[in-house]
Design a protein that fits this description.
Elements: H1 2-21, H2 24-33, H3 42-60, H4 64-88, H5 92-118, H6 125-145, H7 151-157, H8 165-185, H9 188-210, H10 221-237, E1 258-261, E2 266-269
Antiparallel strand pairs: 1-2
Length: 281
Amino acid sequence: MEALLVTFQVLTIITSVFMRFAPYPDFYRVYKAKSTGEVQILPVVLFFTNCVVLVWYGYFSENILPLVVTAVVGILTCGGFIAVFYCYTDDKRSVYKTCAVAIVFIVLLCLYGAMGVEGVTGQSKSSMATAMGAISIGTSIGLYGSPLATIHRILRTKSTASMPFTFCVVSFCNSVSWVTYAIILGDVWILLPNAFGCILTLIQLILFVIYPPSWARARRPNQALSTDHRRSTLEESGKLSLSVSIIKCAREGVGRDRKSIDEKSVDFVELRSPTCSNCRD
């Protein structure tokens, strides 16, 4: 049992570190394009907030590794992602509002945690761990469910372009790892938020299948190759031609043209319009 616990402890560290860097592809595109595009700031702000809660829970439950260590990594990476988003967004007012709410929550949380450490609240370390664990359920649900904040846009546009694909996939894998680790460890406060995370991220992955983003709808390479091959074959045999018919009809003095455009020759042929009785002969 001890070996199994250590195995999943290592696995949770790996998946957690991957999750902390999961938003990187989206924010690297923001940096390269100098525009936020469809990227949303809410998931990253909630990620940052959740990591702060996990630091406190890990401290009071004496779970420094993997909980506290991976949470600190998350605080650092998310702080960088928020800074990149702020630099290139056109709606800085929205960023102010979102971050302001998160900062107020974090300040109150840290005050409560500090008072717990000093014994001002009269709670034991175990009791403080329970309180922080309960808070982490709420922040974790917010984190894992945050990509669904654009559900109306997804249903309207029939595209999941506004949802971070890499983040959703890694979040699902990370949640599964933590659920298994929590069952082995017997920690309900780790189990519950990650169980909700499994459900919410699974819903997001299903949405990606139903409404794939534009980059996933691109033609497969073999289809493009097949089309190019057929085109080159026709060109070599001299059978490829492009015909465009333009029919113009007028009452008086305007001719009718039919243009047949071939890659090797161009012919102009008059064509009477069957819908125009006043066209000249």
